[in-house]
Design brief:
With 190 residues, the protein is α+β, with helices and mostly antiparallel strands. The chain folds into 3 domains: 82 residues; 49 residues; 58 residues, Roll (Nucleotide Exchange Factor Grpe, Chain A, domain 2), CATH 2.30.22. The chain has 3 helices and 6 strands, in the order H-H-H-E-E-E-E-E-E. Helix 2 packs antiparallel against helix 3. One of its GO terms (molecular function) is protein homodimerization activity.
């Protein structure tokens, strides 16, 4: 019986451990539930406050973006309206000179004086355009380039070295700050 007695206390321990474990687990769950119940309102209040704060930030950001979009749209329209203002203001003195020359031509007896006046105005106008970035193309004698030249016609080349080159320029081409704004209309040697 000593063996049976030895097994009995061991069985008793094994049997009591699950009961103790179950009791311990039940007590732990009850404590956790109480902790959760006290923490749940706090967590709920914190998450609601965070959610309200995030919504407020989102609404403010959205409103800021709408204001930015409206402002940039308005500024863009203003820019388009006044884009040429600087050039127009610079051209007004040339226009004044042309009006004075026109008035002077009505009563002028000396053609050379009128010619000199018109040449002065022309040079002033060209100088102003160059200051604003406009530059005339040099086409005659250059090899034909379809990126900057527009071929009107081809004629027989006067010499072998002029084949494929620009022989005559019908209309000047212009660059504005290194961008072609008007192609040169040219005659090519064939």
């Amino acid at each position: 019986m000593s063996t049976a007695a030895e097994q009995n206390p061991q069985e008793e321990l094994e049997n009591t451990q699950p009961e103790n474990n179950a009791a311990t687990e039940a007590a732990a769950e009850q404590a956790d539930t109480q902790n959760l119940e006290t923490e749940a309102p706090q967590a709920s209040e914190n998450s609601t406050a965070e959610l309200d704060e995030m919504r407020d930030k989102y609404l403010r950001l959205h409103a800021e973006f709408d204001n930015f979009r409206r402002r940039t749209s308005k500024e863009r329209l203003e820019l388009f309206k006044t884009a040429n203002q600087e050039l127009m203001v610079a051209l007004i003195p040339v226009l004044d000179d042309l009006e004075r020359a026109q008035t002077a031509m009505k009563d002028a007896q000396d053609v050379n004086a009128v010619r000199e006046g018109v040449e002065l105005i022309f040079n002033k106008f060209i100088s102003l355009l160059q200051q604003k970035g406009l530059k005339a193309m040099e086409a005659v004698g250059q090899p034909f380039d379809a990126d900057v030249h527009e071929a009107i016609t081809q004629i027989p080349a006067p010499s072998e070295e002029m084949k494929g080159k620009v022989i005559d320029q019908v209309e000047k081409g212009y660059y504005l700050n290194d961008k072609v704004v008007r192609f040169a209309k040219v005659v090519i040697g064939a």
